[in-house]
Amino acid sequence: MLTTIAQLGQHIGEEVKLGCWLYNKRSSGKIQFLQLRDGSGFVQGVVVKAEVSEETWERASQLTQESSLYITGVVREDERAPSGYELTVTGIEIIQIVQDYPISLKEHGVDFLMDHRHLWLRTPRQRAVMAIRSEIIRAVGEFFQQNGFYKVDPPILTPTSAEGTTNLFHTKYFDEDAYLSQSGQLYMEAAAMALGRVYSFGPTFRAEKSKTRRHLIEFWMIEPEMAFVDHEENLRIQEQFVSHIVQSVLKNCQRELKTLERDTSKLEKVTAPFPRITYDDAIKLLQEKGSEIKWGDDFGAPDETMIAEHFDKPVFITHYPTDIKAFYMKPDPKRPEVVLCADLIAPEGYGEIIGGSQRIDDPELLKQRFQEHHLSEEAYKWYLDLRQYGTVPHSGFGLGLERTVAWICGLEHVRETIPFPRLLYRLYP
After folding, report:
1. Number of helices (H) and strands (E), helices first, in the chain?
2. What is the pTM of this model?
């Protein structure tokens, strides 16, 4: 029966069998050191010529990078080993000897690695990123399950835009126009009126011709919506949510964070509550630093970074001008020119990871917004129905998975945060 590298700690002193690939190999006379991987981790297998059959020694000698094999050996503790264990090899069964593996153990250009993304994923760094992404996804589900949320799946094909923008992928739905979803939010609001607290987790698409290190064409969003939740409670839930994710990664992915050489002391500070700054104060702060930004302007990436530098945790920027935010955001009753919203800005220059707000619950105001944003009342009639039939105060937010992965992993570019990134001019592999 096969075991895995991740399970070796349960078999110290025992002989085990692994299905694996050879990542690298070096030889020292009568000893061969095999760097093995099986997806769950990496371990070194030590082949001592005097302790194995001639056939096993010869098979070890034949192995090339990414050759596949079954290997048997005795598990030994080794504090020097990255995995904490080592395998004293007793037998090898070769599945395939690989010839001319494209990604050698040297530096390669980004374009080359992206063309070979299907193979690049096998490297320790990329495996670590994918493992942390998986842990974040697990922690997301755990948080919502523990806090009484239901998972609801909104449609990917939609007849209208969620935010009234034109950056949508258009397609034909038989004889009708349809679009790939840029957000499931509007549908999640409907679900919240049925189930109270809900969240979706799925792919979203933005047809933006952007090449920045923060943008993908296809990305994954976590979008909760909550009935009877106001702006203040929305922020509290967000900071608890993000804290839970970060602390879960710190607890369960120490080895992967070490592989990425991530400074975890910065992540350890990410616990609720988070600091807050109003849009007004953020504008003043930027102007004091020499920026020419004016009240009513939206923040760009450099502005967000400048603001985040003042804090060692994620920071909420609240109460943006109504005119620069989406049509569904509720105006502040005390000051209608701003809305009850917040963007959560990650530290270390990673920018916005969450956008959220209290939603408009007044049907007449929503009709007015339709007119101001030139939205078809007929197309959005179902959305207006939510306010006509049992309207309540409600709030929600959206967290971008890939930007969150980039921040937690300390990555330079979001292209490493998703298995097969869809970027401007890149649809392969």
Report:
1. 13, 18
2. 0.96
